[in-house]
Design a protein that fits this description.
By secondary structure, this protein is mainly beta. The chain has a single domain (about 30-150), classed as Exo-inulinase, domain 1 (Jelly Rolls), CATH 2.60.120.560. The chain is built from no helices and ten strands. Strands 8-7-6-1-10 form a five-stranded antiparallel β-sheet, with no helix packed on it. The N and C termini lie far apart (about 40 Å).
Length: about 160
C-alpha cells in the first residue's frame, strides 16, 4: 500500500507500481482481482522492458477507473503514453471486487474486465518483458489473486 506520495530523491510521477518476473517472458496473461477503496484508477502492466532512469517504463498497461473508463496504453520512457484503445463500461464504483486481465500473444493484446473482452489490439513495439500492478495518483486499492500465466506461442 502506498497511500501518499513518499519523499523522493528526485521528482517522480504519481503512478506507483511494482514489477516482477523475467525480461524474457513473451506470451502470457496477467490477471488480478482489484478493489478500489476510493475513487481512482488501477493498472495492470505487461511486457515491461525497462525504465532507463525514467519514471515511466516501456510497457503495455490496462488501466480502469471507478467511473468505468478504461484504456489500453503503450507507455514509453521517451514519449507520452499512447492510447491503443479506450472505452466506457458501467461504473466499477468503490468497495466492489472486479477481475482484470491483459493477455499478450504475439503482437496481439486482449484486455478483459470481469471476464468480458474489452478490446483486442495489435501492437508489436514490445515483444517481451515483466509484469506488475499499479495505481494512479496513490489511490487506495487492493489486488488479490494476482497471477501470470504462460500462454502457448502465437502461430
Amino acid at each position: 500500500m502506498a497511500p501518499a506520495e513518499p519523499t523522493a530523491w528526485k521528482k517522480t510521477g504519481n503512478r506507483p507500481f511494482t514489477i516482477l518476473g523475467n525480461l524474457d517472458w513473451s506470451d502470457y496473461r496477467i490477471s488480478s482481482d482489484i478493489l478500489l477503496e476510493q475513487p481512482g484508477a488501477v493498472d495492470l502492466m505487461g511486457r515491461l522492458t525497462g525504465m532507463s532512469g525514467a519514471d515511466t517504463p516501456d510497457s503495455y498497461v490496462l488501466r480502469v477507473s471507478d467511473s468505468g473508463s478504461w484504456w489500453v496504453l503503450k507507455t514509453s520512457t521517451k514519449q507520452e503514453d499512447a492510447v491503443l484503445a479506450s472505452g466506457q463500461v458501467s461504473p466499477l464504483g468503490v468497495g466492489a471486487w472486479h477481475g482484470l486481465s491483459l493477455e499478450f500473444l504475439g503482437g496481439s493484446l486482449t484486455a478483459r474486465l470481469d471476464g468480458v473482452a474489452l478490446q483486442t489490439v495489435s501492437d508489436s513495439s514490445y515483444s517481451k518483458g515483466m509484469a506488475g500492478p499499479g495505481v494512479v495518483g496513490y489511490a487506495l486499492a487492493q489486488f488479490d489473486n494476482f497471477k501470470v500465466d504462460p500462454l502457448p506461442p502465437a502461430r
